[in-house]
Design goal:
single chain, 11 helices, four-stranded parallel sheet, alpha/beta
Length: 300
């Protein structure tokens, strides 16, 4: 019965997947309140903002200092939930995030002719993508669309690697402490779903890789040169994990089919790329001015 359903569903998948993904991702929006013009509290920063059907600004607040993140969120959620009906958007409480992102596994399998890759590499903070890859590929395996699970690797920076440390030591995930990394987006010192992510890496025979910020930035520029994609250093971590200098427990086989996940735009961390590139040049909005500046830069 399941396989008959799979055959029917497969034909429908291409048309429905994009719409379904959008609905689920929208359902996972991080909402801690609607603000209409009032000032934000001192010591807090906006994590995400965007208009919502003209009703006001949709924002998420967290403590301004990274080390206060873990204590600030639990304190905000009960008040936000009871007062304004806010949604707790973090894992493991909000599974819409996993349901939305698991469609990436479907797209990967479809792009490979309905085969699983040998390995999927996930830059990891809270672990949503690793959880989503595991769920998505397991569903495809149950439906008979693929014949095996890929190994699922996680990648974390040297300055914040609580899940990687747990995988390597065989222990539970413990709070990392002070976070020291320029790879914004990989800064979750005490992820709520960390132990589930560590179990996925172990069960799929994946690896927990640790990389430096410098290697992430090098990977960011490599991806830009080779693929024309502008990713932030945190997303470059998946490619960095395969480069010389990465702290990878075991080498990967050169014949493996490996998918590197990179979902964060470089526009999220332009200051990191700018610092690595050096001083920028302000030019007139003319093609000739651009060509002149380009040639001058190449001549240095």
């Amino acid at each position: 019965m399941l396989r008959r359903l799979a055959r029917r569903t497969k034909a429908f998948y291409r048309a429905a997947s994009a719409s379904l993904a959008w609905r689920l991702v929208l359902g996972a929006a991080a909402v801690l309140g609607y603000v209409k013009g009032e000032e934000r509290p001192t010591g807090f920063v906006t994590l995400a903002a965007g208009g919502l059907a003209g009703t006001g600004e949709c924002v998420a607040w967290t403590a301004g200092e990274q080390e206060r993140f873990a204590e600030a969120c639990p304190a905000l959620v009960p008040t936000g939930g009871t007062t304004i009906g806010a949604l707790h958007a973090s894992l493991p409480r909000n599974l819409y995030r996993v349901e939305g992102k698991k469609t990436a596994a479907y797209e990967i399998a479809e792009g490979l002719g309905w085969k699983a890759p040998d390995r999927v590499v996930c830059p990891t903070a809270g672990g949503t993508m690793a959880l989503a890859m595991d769920q998505g590929f397991r569903e495809l395996l149950a439906l008979g669309w693929i014949d095996r699970m890929p190994a699922i690797d996680i990648v974390q920076p040297e300055g914040c690697a609580p899940v990687a440390r747990a995988v390597r030591t065989g222990k539970k995930v413990e709070p990392w402490g002070e976070v020291r990394t320029r790879s914004a987006g990989l800064t979750s010192p005490n992820p709520g779903a960390g132990n589930r992510v560590a179990d996925i890496v172990r069960k799929t025979e994946g690896q927990a890789v640790i990389v430096s910020d410098d290697l992430n930035i090098e990977a960011e520029f490599l991806i830009a040169r080779r693929e024309g994609l502008f990713l932030q250093p945190a997303s470059g971590a998946s490619v960095a994990s395969l480069m010389p200098g990465a702290d990878r427990p075991r080498p990967v086989h050169p014949e493996e089919t490996i998918v590197c996940i990179g979902t964060g735009t470089g526009k999220n961390a332009t200051e990191v790329a700018s610092a690595a590139l050096g001083p920028t040049v302000r030019i007139k909005p003319e093609l000739g001015a651009f060509i002149g500046a380009w040639n001058e830069r190449k001549g240095k």
